[in-house]
Design a protein that fits this description.
It contains 11 helices and 4 strands; from the N terminus they run ααααααβαββαβααα. A hairpin with a 6-residue loop joins β2 and β3.
Length: 227
């Protein structure tokens, strides 16, 4: 969810400064990650395998679970905009035109609307899971291995896991006290402390001067949508 939100904010910023390739790339992935996030909490899918789904498979499963029938929970038009954004992203990634075709454009209000729907449904699903399976999960190496397989990548040279600094404290807490599945809307204050709370000084030294502001705006967007 935060990945999608930050990509949406960065897509808007790219448009403001005239970075058209980055704009189309980020618009597509903002929607892609919003849709994929719902598949992670789908009880009919193994969340570990969701990461390995192709883009067309994400589209297929999302459409099958959320957009079919007269009373579908999501409007079928979200699939149309997904297909369009995918084509625009590929156009500018592989066969960039010298001049932008007149019909290649994105209504940011529409994109933001569909991402909002995904976040709200995701928040609702997290409440449902919380009500069905309350209680604390005890630390288990199998849980940690599952988490690492889902959330970490390996450095292609050293083969070491590329870890998030925030996870050091998370795993310490998990081993000491266990963990529970908390609805996103109730756990958002903890997210605020962790999201960008460890690397702002490093990014500033590297020249990412606006990263802190972008993250704040991304967090605000999530907060406004699910609260």
């Amino acid at each position: 969810m935060y990945n999608s939100s930050q990509m949406l904010i960065e897509a808007k910023r790219n448009k403001e400064v005239g970075c058209i390739i980055g704009h189309f790339f980020l618009c597509y992935y903002a929607l892609f990650h919003a849709m994929q996030s719902l598949l992670f909490l789908n009880p009919n899918l193994d969340s570990e395998k969701v990461l390995d789904l192709s883009h067309n498979e994400v589209k297929k499963y999302f459409e099958d679970f959320y957009c079919k029938g007269n009373n579908s929970i999501m409007p079928p038009e979200i699939i149309d905009i997904f297909v369009v954004l995918k084509e625009y992203r590929e156009l500018y990634s592989y066969t960039m035109p010298f001049n932008n075709p007149q019909n290649v454009m994105i209504e940011m209000e529409h994109l933001e609307y569909y991402i909002t729907l995904c976040f709200q449904l995701l928040s609702l699903k997290s409440f449902i899971i919380y009500k069905i399976e309350p209680g604390t999960i005890a630390f288990d190496n199998n849980v940690k291995e599952y988490f690492e397989n889902c959330c970490y990548k390996r450095d292609p040279i050293s083969q070491k896991l590329i870890r998030d600094e925030a996870d050091k404290y998370f795993w310490w807490q998990f081993e000491e006290y266990g963990a529970d599945f908390f609805p996103y809307a109730l756990g958002i204050e903890a997210d605020m402390d962790e999201y960008g709370g460890y690397d702002s000084h490093i990014l500033e030294e590297l020249g990412f001067k606006e990263c802190g502001t972008i993250r704040i705006n991304a967090f605000r967007f999530v907060y406004s949508v699910i609260h």
